[in-house]
Design goal:
Elements (H helix, E strand, L loop, with lengths): L3 E5 L2 H11 L3 E5 L5 E2 L7 E2 L5 E2 L2 E2 L1 H15 L3 E4 L5 H14 L7 E3 L7 H9 L6 H28 L10 H17 L4 E11 L7 E8 L2 E2 L5 H11 L4 E15 L7 H12 L3 H13 L1 E2 L4 E2 L14 H15 L33 H4 L5 H17 L4 E14 L18 E12 L32 E13 L8 H10 L8 H10 L3 E4 L2 E4 L1 H13 L6 H15 L5 H19 L10 H8 L12 E2 L4 E2 L1 H13 L7 H15 L4 H8 L3 H20 L3 E3 L2 H10 L8 E3 L2 E3 L1 H15 L1 E3 H13 L7 H8 L32 H14 L9 E3 L2 E3 L1 H15 L4 H12 L28 E6 L6 E7 L2 E6 L8 E3 L1
Parallel strand pairs: 1-2, 1-7, 7-8
Antiparallel strand pairs: 3-6, 4-5, 9-10, 9-17, 10-11, 10-16, 12-15, 12-17, 13-14, 15-16, 18-19, 20-21, 22-25, 23-24, 26-27, 28-29, 29-30, 30-31
Helix pairs in contact: 3-5, 5-16, 5-17, 6-14, 6-15, 8-12, 8-13, 9-12, 17-22, 20-22, 21-22, 23-26, 27-29
């Protein structure tokens, strides 16, 4: 019997297909990618057309032996990975790794659903690996590696350790940060709505609710309360005529939305089910890979990573038959619905749909989890609705014109400069005469309806020209609202609209920026963190072109062109790389290290004979840099040991070559002959940029004897233990040692370094008896910067959040310091820490930090003394009676005056009640004393 081996990606898919095919075919899983770029190296040979240097992944190491053993005994190997770029690349790698272990032929088979008929059809039409898809995946992988590998170290040095940049994730972060800044910069604009209730003179019982729509034929925009009050008074004056001026009924067709793509499914699941993008894709994967339906196992939906809205003819015919049988023939469209996919969509792919429309959500509910059922129902109803007839609706509108009376003489800037105002009030409603697809699926359920969808029903029957009576008139103050923050679903929509990312990457993009703490979820919205702001601002400032939304979309388009066989992937990478090197140099990064072979380096080393005029050795922060010794060591490594230089050595050597290139032109010609001309020119530019930064850096001042004396005295200090705040750790001892090493090596410190040393010394002033004398000689101000938290400004000793303005301590407060510190040491039993929201309050930790600060510095601020006294008040039973009497610090400066709160000499333009000044959430404004009946507010 013929033995077939079928390789898929996941174990779950392998189990489902194995049950469908039976014993004749062995189905194994590759566990995702088996080959990838190395984790700790660039893994791209820049000297040989960006050739990737693949290594086995951790999963690849686990499964390759069993896959090779199975391939040896197979008659045919079927590569059945996912039908997209990543799946094609996995199939290509599997074939390359297995072809040495078997003589069996390899076939690539593709399917978009896991059903017996789809698998049988795939076996009946085997093909080969499509290399353009593999090229597109390789190009994308190399692009991402080049960007991440080179830009991320800049973030570590300039922003924070363990941060990273991504070609696409950083653009997504930029969208979120830009939106947040747009919200913060938003200035609300006041406007007023006027809502009127009219009744026909001939039928006073009919009441028609309307809203002011136009003033003198132009869109109504009532900007303030005074204008609204004037309109209200004029409309209620004698002589005003209210008359029906227009009645319209406009038929319309409401067409169904197309079946889901990846992004629209994520958006709908986010809106209707409150699923995150990763959660949506995880549940969809389960539905695709197969569900046990009580004896039979089958995939319930088609492949869930797609940007196509195509539907197979067989599936469409089955859906139309189901619709006719279930809902009636009139719900079947006259011609089957057709939808147009986006430019980048692969026409061979299908939309996300149920594999069998007869499997209704109710019929499979017993076999699904709650989340699986919710998503399956969403997919099923969207697909069925997409194949149904359009809904027939009628948009009704009635307009009532008000003119005459005091409106004749009214002058309003919002209605034109000339006297006389005609007001047009409008009522609208949408009536559904045939529900069509709305029987099963409504955009309103997803919050994606338009304004008219909320105005369902019909309007009373009136005749044009009929006179009306104004029954009621209300005015309402409103303010324009800032744009909403992105939700996960809205971000996916924005990425897709901007051409950034693809179906297989949307969820991972969102997950990455959340996992890295660049963004946090606030309810269902995405809000950039402080770290996210800093990462984004640095990247946009240093690499504006690289992280531009338009450029990223252009690169995605080029990857699509590679996939279609229209662009050569190596040529595209060369074009990108040349620009990238220039951006790196201008942004302060080292160019991508060259993939130097031992032979290429040996040729370059010949340009540095023993008599070469090397620069003198140069002292760095931790070592002496000697070019002559470096060259000797490299030559020895290559000639005697035959070792290839590692990337770090290659980068250092290229940097050294660039430094000598202007003085020795033969280095440039030699590099160009070896194919290293681009890297060398980029390194020369990077060296030049680094030199400019060094020239513009703060000048280091020669070390005075007094400063050296202070550094020597601080060697004996016992520094506080390191303190961690968030992701950062502040270590006074480590920071001091780095300053001391710098001072010893270069005999100079920059102004910021001197200031940091000064603050660190002040923190330990009580343990440095020599400090007052040294400070006087150096001209330092001995008035100290006092830490508010008791933890001090560790590290750079300069945390702006933890300091108050310098001030001398008063005698009263000095005595109080001694008293409170002594009382603190008498407390033996402390309350356990408590949590309020995200903050942890620990009395013992707080009090001991103040004791440590006082013992180091001999000073506490009035605010710290007050906080310590209040804390000790909770432990009065452990202290001598009356010991806390008078334990209040003397304030050294009065509080800044603020505007008085309470009733002001101004009345509400809406109801005439007095206004009062209110402070709420850090914002001061004027509000009506008639609240809650009157909700008028204004700035003030």
């Amino acid at each position: 019997m013929k033995k077939n081996l079928m390789i898929v990606e996941s174990p779950a898919k392998a189990r489902t297909i194995g049950k469908l095919l039976g014993a004749g075919t062995t189905v194994l899983a590759s566990m995702g990618h088996v080959n990838d770029l190395p984790q700790r190296e660039l893994g791209v040979d820049l000297s040989h057309d960006f050739k990737p240097e693949y290594v086995l992944t951790p999963n690849g190491k686990k499964v390759m032996k069993s896959l090779k053993d199975a391939a040896k005994s197979a008659d045919t190997v079927y590569l059945a990975t996912d039908p997209d770029r990543e799946g094609e690349a996995i199939a290509w790698h599997l074939q390359n790794l297995l072809k040495g272990s078997t003589k069996a032929p390899f076939h690539r088979i593709a399917y978009h659903e896991i059903t017996r008929s789809a698998i049988d059809n795939a076996f009946a039409h085997p093909g080969q690996v499509e290399l353009p898809l593999v090229d597109a995946q390789q190009a994308r992988r190399v692009l991402d590696r080049l960007v991440g590998y080179q830009v991320s170290p800049l973030l570590w040095r300039n922003v924070e350790k363990d941060t990273s940049a991504g070609r696409v994730q950083s653009v997504a972060l930029r969208l979120i940060v830009d939106r947040e800044r747009e919200i913060n910069a938003f200035v609300p604009v006041e406007f007023w709505n006027l809502d009127a209730v009219f009744s026909p003179s001939s039928a006073p019982t009919i009441r028609l609710k309307t809203r002011l729509n136009r003033l003198n034929g132009k869109k109504a925009n009532v900007p303030d309360g005074a204008s609204a009050q004037a309109l209200e008074s004029a409309l209620q004056s004698k002589g005003v005529v209210h008359q029906v001026s227009a009645i319209t009924s406009t038929p319309r067709l409401q067409h169904p939305a197309p079946p889901f793509t990846t992004s629209t499914m994520q958006q709908a699941a986010g809106s209707a089910l409150r699923f995150g993008t990763s959660q949506t894709m995880s549940v969809a994967q389960q539905l695709y890979e197969g569900i046990d339906l009580g004896g039979t196992t089958s995939g319930l939906i088609t492949y869930m990573r797609t940007d196509s809205v195509n539907v197979a003819k067989e599936a469409q015919d089955a859906a139309l038959a189901f619709i006719s049988k279930t809902y009636g023939a009139k719900f079947v469209p006259a011609t089957p619905n057709r939808y147009r996919s986006g430019k980048s969509a692969q026409e061979a792919h299908e939309a996300i749909r149920p594999t069998n429309v007869e499997r209704t959500p109710d019929s499979v509910a017993p076999y699904l989890t709650a989340q699986q059922l919710k998503l399956y129902k969403l997919i099923w109803t969207r697909f069925v609705a997409s194949q149904m007839a359009s809904a027939k609706q009628v948009d009704h509108a009635i307009e009532i014109s008000s003119q005459g009376g005091d409106l004749k003489t009214l002058s309003l800037a919002c209605a034109g400069k000339t006297p006389g105002v005609e007001c047009t009030f409008r009522a609208a409603a949408r009536e559904t005469t045939f529900p069509g697809y709305l029987t099963v699926y409504s955009m309103k359920d997803l919050g994606q309806e338009d304004e008219m969808d909320n105005l369902t029903g019909s309007l009373p029957e009136l005749t044009e020209g009929a006179l009306c009576i104004l029954q009621d008139l209300k005015k309402e103050q409103c303010f324009t609202q800032p744009p909403n923050r992105y939700s996960e679903a809205a971000l996916v929509k924005a990425l897709e609209a901007n051409g950034v990312g693809r179906p297989s990457t949307f969820a991972s993009i969102v997950k990455t920026i959340l996992d890295r703490k660049y963004v946090e979820k606030e309810k269902s919205s995405l809000r950039p963190t402080e770290l996210g702001f800093r990462v984004n601002d640095f990247l946009v400032a240093q690499f504006p072109e690289l992280f531009d939304v338009g450029f990223t979309a252009q690169m995605e388009g080029e990857l699509d062109a590679i996939e279609e066989g229209q662009v050569n992937w190596v040529a595209m990478l060369h074009e990108f790389y040349d620009k990238f090197q220039k951006w790196l140099a201008s942004g302060g990064a080292r160019p991508t290290p060259a993939s130097l072979t031992a032979e290429a380096m040996d040729e370059l080393l010949k340009c540095f004979p023993d008599e070469f005029p090397f620069d003198p050795p140069m002292a760095g922060a931790r070592r002496i840099y000697n070019d002559a010794t470096f060259v000797q060591n490299l030559r020895k490594r290559i000639e005697e040991k035959g070792e290839k230089p590692n990337e770090r050595q290659a980068a250092a050597f290229l940097g050294m070559v660039a430094r000598y290139a202007s003085r020795h032109p033969e280095l440039v010609s030699k590099a160009e002959a070896l194919g290293l001309g681009t890297q060398l020119q980029a390194q020369i530019a990077a060296n030049s940029a680094a030199e400019e930064r060094r020239q513009s850096a703060p000048e280091k001042l020669a070390l005075e004897p007094e400063l050296q004396e202070l550094i020597n005295a601080m060697k004996k200090l016992e520094f506080e233990a390191p303190v961690t705040r968030g992701k950062r750790t502040y270590d006074d001892g480590k920071f001091y040692r780095s300053l001391a090493r710098q001072a010893t090596t270069s005999q100079a410190l920059s102004e910021p370094q001197r200031e940091a040393l000064k603050k660190l010394a002040q923190k330990y002033a009580r343990k440095l008896p020599c400090l007052p004398e040294i400070a006087a000689k150096l001209g330092w101000n001995t008035a100290e910067t006092v830490g508010e938290t008791g933890e001090g400004a560790t590290g750079a000793a300069a945390s702006s959040e933890a300091t108050v303005q310098p001030e001398a301590i008063s005698p009263e407060n000095a005595a109080l310091c001694e008293k409170l510190i002594a009382l603190t040491k008498q407390v033996t039993e402390w309350n356990p820490p408590t949590t309020r929201g995200r903050r942890v309050f620990d009395d013992k930790k707080f009090a001991m930090s103040l004791v440590e600060q006082y013992e180091n510095r001999g000073v506490l601020s009035p605010r710290q003394l007050d906080a310590l006294a209040k804390t000790l008040g909770r432990y009065a039973s452990q202290l001598p009676e009356g010991s806390l009497d008078g334990a209040a610090p003397v304030e050294t400066a009065p509080a800044a005056p603020t505007a008085p709160l309470g009733v002001v000499d101004e009345v509400c333009p809406k109801c005439g009640q007095p206004l009062k000044r209110i402070s709420f959430r850090g914002r001061t404004f004027l509000g009506c004393t008639g609240y809650p009946k009157c909700k008028f507010t204004k700035r003030g």
